[in-house]
C-alpha cells in the first residue's frame, strides 16, 4: 500500500528524474497576484513564467502545491462533507513545461506514470479532450492505445483553460478514473456526470494560444504545459478506496476526532467528522502561512471555515473546544512534508482555541434562535434574510454557516434579504460616521471598505464589526 506521503514523493521523483526541477510549494497567500484570494492551483506561482515576465534556469518544474478553494471562482466549501472528492485544502501535484516540451510528451509522461510506474489498470482510465483538439485525440490513441469511446470530446469551458482575458490559454485534457458501477455517476459529458463514479484525477493544460481582450489572437511562439493532479484523489485510487475521506491522512484525522468526541463517524455524524477533518487542514495551513482570523478579506474566509467546523464539533456534542486538540494529529501526518506546520503549531493551537472559546459563547444562543425561526418550516422552506443577518451580526454566524446548518433539513436562506439587511447596516454606519465630525478621510475609508466588500475575494465585510463576539 502506498501512503499519501509516499505517493507525493514518487510523483516528484518521477518528474525530477525526467529533467524537472522540484520546487517547494509556495505559501497559500499569493505573492504575485493581488486579485486572487488564495493559491488554488499548482501553476499560480509560475504565472509570470508562463506569460514571459520571468524566466527560470530550468524550463521544466514539478511541485506539490498547497491549494485552498474556499471562495472566489473556485469555491468548493459547500461540497465538503457531501462529495467524495472535494476539499477546501488539498495538494495539487504538477509538472510544468515553460516553452519546452508540449502535448506529446505531457501525455506520454502522464500515461507512463499512471500505468507503468504506478501500475494502474488502463481499462479503468478514460480521458476528455477539447472538442476541436484533434491533435490530443490522436495522441491519446497513439500513446495510450485508448479506444475512441474512451477519449471523450467536450465542448464546454471545462476543457478550455485561460489565465484571464489576456495571455496564454489553450485546451485541456482531463484524466478520469472509473471507480466501478457500484457507484452512481456517468462519464464526463453524460447527464449523470455529477455522480462520483468517474472521478477526475488529473488535468493537463496545453497552453498554445495567445489571448487579448478575451479573444484568441494567435499561437504562442513557445507552447507550454501545466498539469494538476489532486494528491488526495490519486491516493484514494492507489489505496483502493473510492472516497478521498477514506485515505490514510483523513483516516488518521477522523479517528482523532472520533476519539476526542467519543462519537463514531457513521450515519448522520459522518459528514460532521469529514467537515472537521477538512477544515482542520485548511485552517491550520492558512494560519501557518500567516493568515489570521478577522472580519474581512482572507481573514474572514479563514474565520468562516473555522466557525463552520466548530458548529460541527458542537453538533457532535463536544463540550469543550475541539479543533486545537486535533492539531497534533495533523502535524504527525503532514509535518514532515510541510515543516511550516510544526513551526507554527503553537500559534495554530492558540488561535483555534481562542476562536472556539469565543464562538461558543454565542453559538448555542444562535442555534436556538435558528431553531425557533424554523420550527414551523418543512423541506423547501426559506429562512428570512433578516434572521440570517441577525445571526451574522449578533451571534457571529457567517452566512454560509447558516446555510450549512439548514441544509440537512432542506431549508434555504433568503440571500437577497440578507444582502439588503447588510447594505442597510452599512448605510447606517456611513451616515453615523458622517455626522460624527470624524476626520474627512473616513469617507475614503468607507469607499475602500465597500469596494473591497464588493470584490469577489473579500467575503462579507461589516463596517461595524461582525457581532460583538
Ligand atoms: P472537479 O471538476 O472535480 O471539481 P476541477 O476540474 O475543478 O475538479 P482542476 O481545476 O482541473 O479541478 O484541478 C486539477 C486537479 O486538482 C483535479 O483534477 C483534481 O484532481 C484536483 N482538485 C480540484 N479541486 C479539488 C478539490 N476541491 N479537492 C481535492 N482535489 C481537487
Ligand atoms: Mg472543481
Ligand atoms: Mg473538472
Ligand atoms: Mg479539471
UniProtKB/TrEMBL annotation:
EC number of the protein: 6.1.1.7
Q: Which cofactor does it need?
A: Zn(2+)
User: What does the record give as the function of this protein?
Assistant: Catalyzes the attachment of alanine to tRNA(Ala) in a two-step reaction: alanine is first activated by ATP to form Ala-AMP and then transferred to the acceptor end of tRNA(Ala). Also edits incorrectly charged Ser-tRNA(Ala) and Gly-tRNA(Ala) via its editing domain.
Q: Which reactions is this enzyme annotated as catalysing? A: tRNA(Ala) + L-alanine + ATP = L-alanyl-tRNA(Ala) + AMP + diphosphate
Q: Does Iron count among this protein's keywords?
A: no
Classify the main location.
cytoplasm
- In the UniProt record, the signal sequence range is none
Task: Tell me which residues make up the Alanyl-transfer RNA synthetases family profile domain.
Answer: 2-469
| Species | Novosphingobium panipatense
Task: Tell me which UniProt keywords the record has, alphabetically.
Answer: Aminoacyl-tRNA synthetase, ATP-binding, Coiled coil, Cytoplasm, Ligase, Metal-binding, Nucleotide-binding, Protein biosynthesis, RNA-binding, tRNA-binding, Zinc
Family to which the UniProt record says this protein belongs:
Belongs to the class-II aminoacyl-tRNA synthetase family.
Which cellular compartments is it found in?
A: Cytoplasm
- Gene from which this protein is expressed: alaS
| Domain-related comment | Consists of three domains; the N-terminal catalytic domain, the editing domain and the C-terminal C-Ala domain. The editing domain removes incorrectly charged amino acids, while the C-Ala domain, along with tRNA(Ala), serves as a bridge to cooperatively bring together the editing and aminoacylation centers thus stimulating deacylation of misacylated tRNAs.
* Name the record gives this protein: Alanine--tRNA ligase
* UniProt keyword annotation of Transport present: no
Amino acid at each position: 500500500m502506498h501512503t499519501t506521503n509516499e505517493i507525493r514523493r514518487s510523483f516528484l521523483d518521477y518528474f525530477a528524474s525526467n529533467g524537472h526541477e522540484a520546487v517547494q510549494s509556495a505559501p497559500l497567500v499569493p505573492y504575485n497576484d493581488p486579485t486572487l484570494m488564495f493559491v488554488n492551483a499548482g501553476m499560480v506561482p509560475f504565472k509570470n513564467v508562463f506569460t514571459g515576465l520571468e524566466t527560470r534556469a530550468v524550463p521544466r518544474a514539478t511541485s506539490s502545491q498547497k491549494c485552498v478553494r474556499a471562495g472566489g471562482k473556485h469555491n468548493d466549501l459547500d461540497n465538503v462533507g457531501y462529495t467524495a472528492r472535494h476539499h477546501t485544502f488539498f495538494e495539487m501535484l504538477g509538472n510544468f513545461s515553460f516553452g519546452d516540451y508540449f502535448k506529446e510528451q505531457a501525455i506520454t509522461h502522464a500515461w507512463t506514470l499512471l500505468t507503468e510506474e504506478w501500475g494502474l489498470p488502463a481499462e479503468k482510465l478514460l480521458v476528455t479532450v477539447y472538442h476541436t483538439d484533434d491533435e490530443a485525440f490522436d495522441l491519446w490513441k497513439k500513446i495510450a492505445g485508448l479506444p475512441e469511446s474512451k477519449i471523450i470530446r467536450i465542448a464546454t469551458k471545462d476543457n478550455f483553460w485561460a489565465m484571464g482575458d489576456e495571455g496564454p490559454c489553450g485546451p485541456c485534457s482531463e484524466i478520469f478514473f472509473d471507480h466501478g458501477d457500484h457507484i452512481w455517476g456517468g462519464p464526463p459529458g453524460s447527464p449523470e456526470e455529477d455522480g462520483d463514479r468517474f472521478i477526475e484525477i488529473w488535468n493537463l493544460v496545453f497552453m498554445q494560444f495567445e489571448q487579448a481582450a478575451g479573444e484568441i489572437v494567435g499561437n504562442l511562439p513557445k507552447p507550454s504545459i501545466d498539469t494538476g493532479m489532486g494528491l488526495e484523489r490519486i491516493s484514494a485510487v492507489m489505496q483502493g478506496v473510492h472516497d478521498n475521506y477514506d485515505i490514510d491522512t483523513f483516516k488518521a484525522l477522523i479517528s482523532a476526532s472520533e476519539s476526542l468526541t467519543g462519537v463514531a463517524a457513521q450515519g448522520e455524524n459522518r459528514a460532521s467528522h469529514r467537515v472537521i477533518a477538512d477544515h482542520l487542514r485548511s485552517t491550520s495551513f492558512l494560519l501557518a502561512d500567516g493568515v489570521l482570523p478577522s472580519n474581512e478579506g482572507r481573514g474572514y474566509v479563514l474565520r468562516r471555515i473555522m466557525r463552520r467546523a466548530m458548529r460541527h464539533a458542537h453538533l457532535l456534542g463536544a463540550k469543550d473546544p475541539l479543533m486545537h486538540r486535533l492539531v497534533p494529529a495533523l502535524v504527525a501526518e503532514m509535518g514532515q512534508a510541510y515543516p511550516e506546520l510544526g513551526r507554527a503549531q503553537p500559534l495554530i493551537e492558540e488561535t483555534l482555541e481562542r476562536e472556539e472559546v469565543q464562538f461558543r459563547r454565542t453559538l448555542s444562543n444562535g442555534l436556538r434562535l435558528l431553531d425557533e425561526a424554523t420550527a414551523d418550516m418543512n423541506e423547501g422552506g426559506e429562512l428570512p434574510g433578516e434572521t440570517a443577518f441577525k445571526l451574522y451580526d449578533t451571534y457571529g454566524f457567517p452566512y454560509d454557516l447558516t446555510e450549512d446548518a439548514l441544509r440537512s433539513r432542506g431549508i434555504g436562506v433568503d440571500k437577497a434579504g440578507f444582502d439588503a439587511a447588510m447594505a442597510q447596516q452599512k448605510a447606517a454606519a456611513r451616515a453615523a460616521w458622517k455626522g460624527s465630525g470624524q476626520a474627512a478621510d473616513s469617507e475614503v475609508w468607507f469607499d475602500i471598505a465597500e469596494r473591497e466588500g464588493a470584490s469577489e475575494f473579500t467575503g462579507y465585510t461589516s463596517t461595524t464589526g461582525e457581532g460583538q463576539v
